[in-house]
Description:
Layout: H1 10-15, H2 17-24, H3 33-43, E1 50-54, H4 63-72, E2 77-80, H5 91-103, E3 107-116, H6 119-132, E4 136-141, H7 146-156, E5 159-163, H8 175-182, E6 189-194, H9 195-200, H10 205-211, E7 216-221, E8 223-224, E9 233-234, H11 243-252, E10 258-261, H12 271-289
Parallel strand pairs: 1-2, 1-10, 2-3, 3-4, 4-5, 5-6, 6-7, 7-10
Antiparallel strand pairs: 8-9
Amino acid sequence: MDHRPLLPRRGFLQQSGAALAALAGVGLAGAQTASGFESARAEGKKPSFRLALASYTLREFPLSQALEMTKRLGLKHICLKSFHLPLDASPEQINEAKKLVADAGIDLYAGGVITMTNEQEVVQAFDYARQAGMRIIVASPHPPILPLVEKKVQETSIAVAIHNHGPGDKFFPTPESVYERVKGLDPRIGLCMDIGHTARIGADPIADARRFADRLLDVHMKDIDVASPAGKCVECGRGVLDLPGFLRALIDIGYGGMVSFEYEKDPNDPLPGLAESVGYVRGVLDTLLGIHDRSIQLG
């Protein structure tokens, strides 16, 4: 594991040329990162995506507390896992959770990851998402039910982003495995790229973001300590992933979805590491873009 000093805060990243050199020297494609900073600045591109939270991060906390923590981080969009809104919740319970999220000033854009193995689970997932006002289902479907998933997408206009789970996922281990299954389906069926699992199986998150840009609907943002099946989640900036290069790729392809933090470490005390991760990514984005214009809203 690379134990270089963390560069978490936007001010430090903007002030120091040494920060660029440090960031350029690490990651799966670190040699490209310095040029990434320069090209993003030179081209004047601005991100179309927003930063969000995958609520699995806060799985040990009730919804009300999870929303307070999300607000403290300055994140305004959330994907709820069933820990916070059970799949079998009644319409009244869904409405109550929906109101809690709205009252917190947070956008309930998605739910998941939701497993779909049969027709009943597909119907339940879409009813759940529609009642909650979600625009995306982050899903782990079994391939034989994809025709039904496509039918429900066309009926409801709710998109489905299939999550790649890396080693151990016999259906969708890589972004490419998702792409090959969905490329002939409705374009609202695509990929939720988990960049940690992508690297754990030996694929390149940066290259795959570019290759599968037309089906990239959602992103799970994290860092890992080693790019192998044994890799574990660490604070963003402390691991081996080339996060500056990945964020540059999202800007280059005009990705317009959410970049949701999924911090799997420290489930009983996630806020320090999660805040560090959010600060690091915001700092990298500020540095990539040379941002001084606060009209650009990433949260």
